Fold this protein.
Amino acid sequence: MSTVKTPALIRGYEVVIGLETHVQLSTHSKIFSGASTQFGAAPNTQACPVDMALPGTLPVMNKGAVERAIAFGLSVDALVAPRSIFARKNYFYPDLPKGYQISQYEIPVVQGGKVSFFVGDQAHTVRLVRAHLEEDAGKSLHDDFSGFNGEKSSGIDLNRAGTPLLEIVTEPDIRSSAEAAEYARALHTLVVWLGICDGNMQEGSFRCDVNVSVRKPGAALGTRREIKNLNSFKHIVQAADYEINWQIDEIEDGRAIQQATILFNPDTGETRAMRTKEDAHDYRYFPDPDLPPLVIAPEWVERVRGEMPELPRLMAARFEKDYGLPAYDATMMTQSKAFGAFFEAAAQACKQAKLVSNWLMGEVSRRLNAHEQTIDDSPISADLLAALITRIADGTISNNGAKQVFEALWSEQEESEALPPLAQVDAVIEAKGLKQMSDTGELEKILDDVLAANAKSVEEFRAGKEKAFNALVGQAMKATKGKANPATVNELLKKKLGG
């Protein structure tokens, strides 16, 4: 999939976006301590002395977090650094008990890489700068929090402190809010596919910081503002669009953009400045003296590689090769492991891969998306969808009839689920009288009546008007109440008209 650059000019300005995504790694314990990472515990019940930075405590690296970083690096064709360094990122915040965050700066564990995706049917590739390991901070509690005296106050929950994160940083390759959201979707799919993150955006397992700037075409990069902690793809689009137009308004009114960290309010759809944006030197990075360099031997990398599942891009390439799918279809079929398995099972059962992908991208996805469900929730199994497609392919039912059968199977499947898949489909076809007319003898009689009743259309067709033929096909379908096979009707009509 090649990189595609699109101008995406908005009000005469080019949009430049980069993302920093914090991926919470799926380890059971924290990155430098043995405390649990389970979500939902009472405040401060999962914070051990290391997380609270009590005197005399020392961090110990979590091997599982490193292996998840290695797997990510391999999945995006990045360099997994044989030696990387942990640093102290110094800043004061109430929920940061040490007064610094252990992160990586000059030498991260994952360097470079790329993520490919589609926006509509247009292919895009975004380059990655890096992915580095770090610990999360705690959480400040403000809303509806009661202190010891029962009055509203603020509190600190250190349960998240020390939770392992992989921060994934892109180059400023993104040129629209839609591209930003689709990149985030592709990245989300990948980390969940690998099993390195549960992907739960509501719980903060996958959250994005979106850096937005605008410029006139050909000009130097504009001043960026960073929208923090977006936890839905919809909010990425809404926040970026609002910020883009706000920056353009400021520039058009003669005001300079100030680098800042900003927040998005989903209730108002607006962004607002939180603080002046810091630069790297403000954090006074220096190597953490309590942690030795992280050394990753080639043998360790190869062991992780051998334990990885088939990657989405490789599965998509296989679907293109083995099933003849277009690149877009193949990518859509690999939106999750379960989706890919569903497609492959159905395609193997009916030998109609393109029809399967059409139905999965169409009717099946439409139903699932309407109810915010996944393919695992589909009441129609892969074998049942394959049976329906088999009856389309062999001409038993039309596409319109198939949609009626699909509707019945989706809503009433439990009534006939004891039958084999093909028998279930046939039972619905029979009950609804949807079987296409395939008796050519009967069809020929009907077509003779249609031609006799539409002599004018016959004359027009023979005079060279192609639209007249379509009108005759329409009359034939009407006469058979839509039960005739359109391909058979076309073939017989052409013979009778000498076409």
